[in-house]
């Protein structure tokens, strides 16, 4: 994805997997794609991120595209530090401190 307009409006669709929610799909609209990407990466739990799609300007982004855009050098928003649990999950370890 050579060029991407982070300032275009975007919609996030999430299929809530492995939950007991009554609503099978969650929908949120964002004024720009940068905020939608940050929401998907920083706010959604990992099991919901896997079922997330972002649509912007006739482009549909899957989870790999979302992660790739978040990591790009030209990503326009400041990234938050990952939560300790997110870091541990990425390493495949427990977030609990050793005893």
Short synopsis of the structure:
This protein is α+β, with helices and mostly antiparallel strands. The protein is 31% helix and 20% strand. Residues 85-99 have low confidence and may be disordered.
Features:
99 residues, alpha+beta, four-stranded antiparallel β-sheet, 4 helices, 20% strand, globular, disordered C terminus
Outline the structure in words.
- With 99 residues, the chain is of the alpha+beta class.
- It has one domain.
- Helix content is 31%, strand content 20%.
- The chain has four helices and four strands.
- It has a four-stranded antiparallel beta sheet with strand order 2-1-3-4.
- The radius of gyration is 15 Å and the shape is globular.
- The C terminus is likely disordered.
CA radius of gyration is 15 Å
Q: How many β strands by DSSP?
A: 4
Main beta sheet strand tally, sense and closure: 4 strands, antiparallel
Q: What's the overall geometry?
A: globular
- Proportion of residues in extended strands: 15-25%
Lay out the secondary structure.
Blueprint lengths: L9 E6 L9 E6 L2 H10 L3 H4 L2 E5 L2 E3 L1 H9 L12 H8 L8
